[in-house]
Amino acid sequence: MSSILIIEQILNGLQFGVMLFLMAAGLTLIFGVMGLINLAHGSLYMVGAFAAAAVAGATGSFLLALVAALAAAALAGAIVEMAVIRRLYNAPHLDQVLATFALILIFSEGTRWVFGSFPLFLDIPDALSGPVTLPGGIEYPLYRLTLIGIGLAVAVGLWALIERTRLGIQIRAGENDREMIAALGVDISKLYTLVFALGAALAGLAGALVGAIQSVQVGMGEPVLILAFVVIVIGGIGSVRGAFVGALLVGLTDTLGGVFLPELFKLFMETGAAQKSGSALASMGIYVLMGLVLIWRPTGLFGARA
Amino acid sequence: MRLNERYLNAVMIVGLLALPLWAVVADQPFTITLVTRAVILALAAVGLNIILGIGGMVSFGHAVFFGIGGYAMGILAYHAQTYTALDLGLFSMDGTKSMPMIWLVAMILSAIVAVFIGLLSLRTSGVYFIMITLAFGQMFFYFAISWAQYGGEDGLSIYVRNDFPGLNTLAPIQFYTICFTLLCVVLFLFARLQASPFGLALNAARQTSVRVETVGLNPMQLKLLAFVISGAITGLAGALFADLNRFVSPTMFSWQLSGELIVLIIIGGVGRLMGPVIGACVFVALEHFLGELTDFWHVYLGLVLLCIVLFGRGGLTGLLTGKEGAHV
């Protein structure tokens, strides 16, 4: 096993991790500020991907497609928040789970209705296609490298937004004491819609960016949604920093586990059996990781102490 | 219209007896299969209702037990139909086509797994509990997909339905009788459990855990025991479901199925004796009739669900009896 392969796999893991972060950041913000579990977050990811694929197909511009993904997901998020989610803030978790489960059904079947069951394709723009040579002579796809860059930039931007702006102060205050900031004259329902739309836009962006390396199809959001849940449970629900650390941990565990566990098993098993049990264990790896984290810290790495 | 809940329950039971009998007379075997499906889903949901309805634990991973039951049936019957021994490391055993034996294995395996999942996930509560149970479900789902020996992603087909002494299980009505009898037994158990000291303590632990602790009970133990019973019942339903389809696949572990089990309970009414039964019948009917009208029936199911959550507290049972909660 060469060091080039190892570095490549670490980069793949990072790329997967930062995309998971885009999903998990929205989920964790929405939970932190509004106390809401949003199962329909994966649908917003799908909305972003479909909007991007449709606009890219019509105009041929990847940049316009990204703008469309952000706008469509944010708009869908805002509409859903005002029509449904708003009534659920004080409801028990069970009602939230069910109502957002119902939203998944509506979004998925609605999208199938409009776009059909066949996957759409979103092409990587020419300027970003092809490999790039990194120091040390490693060839790595430029697009994936760009994704890592975008993900890190969003992470920094989100940090600045929350820590350094007036809106960020309101968001943090909303997490701590919503009655108080309402009493101080902040329009709380506008703030909630804004936070929800922001989370939705991040999910839509992730959907569009990942849609270019995978296919854009109905149901693409749910596997990512569940991984994003694992991420925020590991990181601590409500903590954006936790979501970042959790996302990188999950991304790296999943990618590296898939490559190295079968190799590891080959040391003491025959090749075929090692391949089989290695990849079986690798597919469960992140859930094992989550279990271990929760045994150690039941509220996640950066969660508030219960 | 305000119905007495007892009256409503009796109507459901009589309906579940009369409809298949009518189907036999009218020679409509497919109707029997539909009702059997509803009864088995109801059985799984009654299991979930013990922890969800009485104990207030929202398990979003109950498909784990449904799948374990399914795979217990699949693996045992697979070894019986291929005449191969099932190698368990220390010893090996023959497969079996006997339903009671399969049920026993399904329930014991589900119970053992429920102990482990319960010990881990009951350390948490609220959202964390929902998500950790969801993650366990996914863990089993991916394990089943990569388990190439038993079909992996394609699942396992069983050629002939398993045997029950004295009955011809291939006749739809006879298989239905088995499922319906089991449902009645489990419903009886549920009613007894809800009224027993254990059920009352569990209900109290849902409302105020601290108070239960103060009177000297251990809420964790109560919840764990409930979780194990619940898992075993859902496992039994899984074995029956696999037998109905003569097929098991990783979709029995899918998180959509966990979601659907919760949906059944909510449609019918949380914590109600017959809530899951009503929910399952409505669900299967919607699936069948809306599915005939349009391929996109999930949109309507979603809308119905949304309305129930936003406007109809207490599910259909609550709507029909005029009482919102099961615990009032």
UniProtKB/TrEMBL annotation, chain A:
Membrane topology: Multi-pass membrane protein
Listed InterPro entries: ABC_transp_permease (IPR001851), BCAA_transport_permease (IPR052157)
Subcellular location: Cell membrane
Transmembrane spans: 12-37, 43-76, 97-122, 142-162, 191-213, 219-237, 244-265, 277-296
Pfam (any one): BPD_transp_2
GO molecular function, one term: transmembrane transporter activity
One term under GO cellular component: plasma membrane
Main location: membrane
Keyword terms, alphabetized: Amino-acid transport, Cell membrane, Membrane, Transmembrane, Transmembrane helix, Transport
GO biological process, one term: amino acid transport
Family: Belongs to the binding-protein-dependent transport system permease family. LivHM subfamily.
PANTHER family with a match to the protein in the record: ABC TRANSPORTER ATP-BINDING PROTEIN, BRANCHED-CHAIN AMINO ACID TRANSPORT SYSTEM PERMEASE PROTEIN LIVH
Protein name as annotated: ABC transporter permease
Organism of provenance: Ruegeria profundi
From TrEMBL, chain B:
GO cellular component entries: plasma membrane
Transmembrane domains' residue ranges: 7-25, 31-51, 63-81, 101-120, 127-150, 170-191, 224-242, 262-286, 298-320
GO molecular function, a single term: branched-chain amino acid transmembrane transporter activity
The entry's keywords: Cell membrane, Membrane, Transmembrane, Transmembrane helix
Domain of life of the organism encoding this protein: Bacteria
InterPro entries from the UniProt entry: ABC_transp_permease, LivM-like
Membrane-topology descriptor: Multi-pass membrane protein
Localization terms from the record: Cell membrane
Record has Cell membrane as a keyword: yes
Main location, first listed in the record: membrane
Protein name as annotated: ABC transporter permease
